[in-house]
């Protein structure tokens, strides 16, 4: 009878006291994945199927959506969930395949910093979006005129 080789393990699997972060990361991936499917398909439906469809998407369309808190929070929730979901998935891949502890630590920190930077930047863009900067009533569309008056 042949023995199956022991799988490669970069770290010893010692159970530590406190919260099981790997378990909660696993739970987050499942829950955020389900919620992201709903948010993304809702986003696609509103942007591509309602109204004029893809031909209606322009600056005025985005300005109209971001004039309401509902769509701001919808897009921010989608942004946060997607970035954290993606960074957590990449962290799992790094932990599985990078064997050198120092390199693994640097890559995990880089992933965390990149995700945090993009979350902050994206959130600022959504909540500080002002379609009226440089507003010119002569060349603006009807939607922008109704928003900026």
UniProtKB/TrEMBL annotation:
* Record keyword Thylakoid present: no
Q: Which GO terms describe its cellular component?
A: membrane
Q: Which branch of life, at top level? A: Bacteria
UniProt keyword annotation of Repressor present: no
Bilayer-spanning residue ranges: 25-50, 70-94, 106-129
Spell out the molecular function terms from Gene Ontology: metal ion binding
Write out the entry's keywords from A to Z. Heme, Iron, Membrane, Metal-binding, Transmembrane, Transmembrane helix
**Subcellular location(s) of the protein:** Membrane
In Swiss-Prot or TrEMBL terms, this protein is called Succinate dehydrogenase/Fumarate reductase transmembrane subunit
| Originating species | Microbacterium trichothecenolyticum
